[in-house]
Amino acid sequence: MSETTKQSGTAPEPERQVPGKVVRSWALWDWATQPFNSVILTFVWVSLYLVSDAFLPDEVAAQNADGSLTCATSADASTEYCRGLADLSADYGWITFVAGLLVLVLAPVLGQQADARGNKKRWVVGGTAALALVQFALFFVYSEPTYFWFGAILIALGSVASEIAGVSYNAMLIEVSTKKTVGRVSGLGWGLGYIGGIIALVLVVLVTQLNWFGMDVSDGLAYRLIAVGAAIWTVIFAVPFVLNVPEAPARHDRPKVGFFRSYVVLAHDLRALFKTHRPTFWFLIASAVYRDGLAGIFAFGGIIAAVSFGFSANEVMIFGIALNLVAGVATIIAGRLDDRFGPRAVIISALVILLVSMLFIFFLREEGKLIFWIGGIVLSAAVGPAQASSRSMLTHMTPDNMQGEIFGLYATTGRVMSFLSPWMWAAFIGWFGATHFGIIGIAIVVAIGLTLMLFVKAKRTPVA
């Protein structure tokens, strides 16, 4: 009880209540956008279609007509076919790198202005609409080499739209929860995301097994229809967010400034945080790096499975379903470990496991698909806990009067480093000429984040 309350003799105000419909509608946005992440970006569209022999010249694609080449082996990786796939992988990495730079430039100021002007919901809705339009536009990416860059640019634009919408979406967490429920509400969003990814992948597997109901799916039509399906999913399941989640009020303690002036305000906020709450500042920096490494694992994992280890389309999709299941279960179990040992211990342990798993996959890659299955399952078991415990740790480290501001910075800084993994992925493939070397690039990003995290010292404080 504060001194003011003691002196006035009045009872403290009861904790505000957030209607369950608002909470569920907010969390359902993760479900609505999940097909773009799991089906389009990770396990189906990019890995099985965009970065595949469908976009190689016919004479190069014909070199592996029988599917005998495995580009993880040193001998096969040197063939013109595998070098062509490596070039596509690198080119996709570079366009994703440019998208990350756009997020770096736009996300901080747009998120800050949305906070100051009270239009976070508007940015979420606008970004979601742009994401749906991009997915619809993927229908026009035909399986010809000349369409590769069109598809890659569309994917990059979708990533930018999703990331910018995600900044405001994550910043709304405080407004759709209370101090007592922030963990549960955040976990609900993560959980619906994993479940949505599993169901979307299962649906793709089913229609594939049914041979697309006898349709002629040449010229990439199967994948183009998958993109349309993802777009329809996004539109339908984003409706509850649009209808039921209220717009957050403007924060009058935040200055309403122009676009370029917003960078000055952001620098001022970070400088003030460095002076007054240094461990929180360093955690924001460390988490920005390792969270980009986690994003890189999912962004390029499907490409490694298909290109380097020769997974078939069904194998990649089943692999994706398994990984989402393992990640969901591991996140629930890690919540108990978080309560017992603290989020910092969970995060550091998860990052170490990630590094060991990536090196295991890289150095034993020539042993075949089983190596990737083992390493991938272990990877997924560590990714979910690292993500969930990051939010938990920030809750423990954030002063009571700075919850909204710090979570906003967390959402923003998490996007500031979003160019690192694509850059390292593309650079390492370009330097060594084989797709599997991208694993080392992402591992370096995770290692840097882990190193920074070791210097973050935080005292755990219970959340009221």
3D structure, described in words:
- It is a single chain.
- This protein is an all-alpha fold and about 475 residues long.
- It has 18 helices and no strands.
- It has a single domain (about 20-240, about 275-455), classed as Up-down Bundle (Growth Hormone, Chain: A).
- α7 (about 120-135) packs antiparallel against α10 (about 220-245) and α12 packs antiparallel against α15 (about 370-395).
- The longest helix has about 40 residues, at about 80-115.
- The relative contact order is 0.15.
Shape: globular
CATH C-level label: Mainly Alpha
Please report the distance between the alpha carbons of the first and last residues. Answer: 13 Å
Give the CATH superfamily. Answer: MFS general substrate transporter like domains
Overall number of structural domains: 1
Question: Which residue ranges are poorly predicted, with pLDDT under 50 across at least 5 consecutive positions?
Answer: 1-13
Number of helical regions: 18
Structural class per helix/strand content?
mainly alpha
N to C succession of SSEs: HHHHHHHHHHHHHHHHHH
CATH architectural label: Up-down Bundle
Percent of residues in beta strands: under 5%
Largest sheet: none
Radius of gyration, in angstroms, nearest whole number: 22 Å
The overall pLDDT, averaged over residues, is 84
Helix content: over 70%
Q: Kindly report the CATH topology.
A: Growth Hormone, Chain: A
Number of strands: 0
